[in-house]
Amino acid sequence: MDKSYKLRVATFLMLCVVVRSQLSSDFYSKSCPNLLNIVRREVRNAIKSEMRMAASLLRLHFHDCFVNGCDGSVLLDGSEGEKFALPNLNSARGYEVIDTIKSAVETECSGIVSCADILTIAARDSVVLSGGPTWKVLLGRRDGVFANQTAANDLPSPFESLDSIISKFAALGLNVTDVVALSGGHTIGLSRCALFSGRLSNFNGTGAPDSTLDSSLIPELQSACPVNSDGNNTVALDNRSRDLFDKNYFANLLKGRGILQSDQVLVSNDSATRAIAQLYSNNSAVFFCDFANAMIKMGNIAPLTGGDGEIRSNCRVVNS
Ligand code: HEM
Ligand SMILES: *[C@@H]1O[C@H](CO)[C@@H](O)[C@H](O)[C@H]1NC(C)=O
Ligand SMILES: *[C@@H]1O[C@H](CO)[C@@H](O)[C@H](O)[C@H]1NC(C)=O
Ligand SMILES: *[C@@H]1O[C@H](CO)[C@@H](O)[C@H](O)[C@H]1NC(C)=O
Ligand SMILES: *[C@@H]1O[C@H](CO)[C@@H](O)[C@H](O)[C@H]1NC(C)=O
Ligand SMILES: *[C@@H]1O[C@H](CO)[C@@H](O)[C@H](O)[C@H]1NC(C)=O
Ligand SMILES: CC(=O)N[C@H]1CO[C@H](CO)[C@@H](O)[C@@H]1O
Ligand SMILES: CC(=O)N[C@H]1CO[C@H](CO)[C@@H](O)[C@@H]1O
């Protein structure tokens, strides 16, 4: 084994995460040295008043990065924007928290830090403050100047096949390991009944519930989602530890207790994703490492850098 290879292996073991990027962890170290402390403090405050906010901020970053890259486009107001796309409407949340963080950051370092970077740091801090892994956040993204509702409507859906979800991730440079690890984000947060109640009866026109559902989960979900309710009731995506970022999500899947169809299919028909979920279900160190790595990869999707885009002064509107 040559020396540089040994060094690479040693570095890998030490940091776990090895992803190349045009972004850098010290991007604001001179221009806004207190940035990470400000974001951490504000995320902690938000979570103190509502623990679910950790999950909401994590999801917001995912929905930002999958549409036009991580450019803060999901934050833009307006009925033509991404907020009104089906996967986000009455669903994505946390915009007010991003506003609060942004104004705290502007007070110390005006016009310096992008909304896209603030969201990226907030997502990392949400995971850490929920008991999950930490990683070095790469920074230097600039904010986009347009939203794309059409692309937001094409975000992965809970009704989609695993193959189709895998290809949507692959198109953005994320592989099967990343699909399973990032799906583990569902270890925190809630889902509305409308997004899984079709599994409870006459699933896919079969006249029966989804056969992959654990039979003891069906009455639990039916009582949380009465037939004549409007679909807005919520249940925890990981009912064993709803606010804790842990590996229970994967243990749930192996028992047929995944809430969304798109969760459960990770262990149904595909032996590759199933093997990864099995590994994570009893090895949180591997899950945490792969999750951190995949979050950095997701955060690297098509960033605007250099002279592209802008530093928005209000995360909800492009600068005039
Ligand atoms: C693999 C494809 C994915 C699908 C189909 C999917 C689908 C969903 C759905 C349907 C909900 C519930 C939304 C609602 O109730 O209105 C949800 C919630 C959530 N998703 Fe995903 N998701 C996926 C991937 C991800 C990824 C990559 C992350 C982050 C790493 C993530 C993090 C979350 C979180 C934290 C919540 C809870 C949000 C809250 O409570 O406010 N999801 N997801
Ligand atoms: C918006 O997204 C759609 C679908 O992904 C794409 O075809 C279209 O070119 C995008 N529009 C812009 C302005 O980038
Ligand atoms: C996915 O990519 C990561 C590197 O980012 C790599 O370590 C992992 O082995 C890949 N997984 C698959 C299934 O190719
Ligand atoms: C349910 O139906 C959809 C298409 O109608 C199909 O893609 C999916 O594989 C079916 N799911 C199961 C678990 O049979
Ligand atoms: C859920 O609540 C929103 C308002 O928060 C409402 O517009 C929507 O119609 C409700 N969904 C259903 C299925 O009734
Ligand atoms: C991990 O869990 C699987 C079942 O999901 C089990 O077969 C295997 O023995 C476990 N491995 C360890 C190291 O605990
Ligand atoms: C689907 C669901 O939410 N099931 C259960 C979650 O856990 C509580 C107890 O902690 C049960 O009452 C729910 O039925
Ligand atoms: C598309 C497909 O092959 N779906 C199958 C996945 O596995 C479940 C049982 O675990 C079957 O019911 C589905 O038909």
TrEMBL record:
Chain residues that bind heme b: H186
Where does the chain bind substrate? P156
One BP term from GO = hydrogen peroxide catabolic process
For this chain, the annotated S-S bridges are: C32-C109, C65-C70, C115-C315, C193-C225
So which residues are the signal peptide here? 1-21
Cite the SUPFAM superfamilies for this sequence: Heme-dependent peroxidases
The record's subcellular locations are: Secreted
Any one GO CC term of this protein is: extracellular region
Gene3D superfamilies attached to this UniProt entry? 1.10.520.10, Peroxidase, domain 2 (1.10.420.10)
- Catalysed reactions, semicolon-separated: 2 a phenolic donor + H2O2 = 2 a phenolic radical donor + 2 H2O
One annotated GO molecular function: heme binding
Q: What does this protein do?
A: Removal of H(2)O(2), oxidation of toxic reductants, biosynthesis and degradation of lignin, suberization, auxin catabolism, response to environmental stresses such as wounding, pathogen attack and oxidative stress.
Name of this chain's protein? Peroxidase
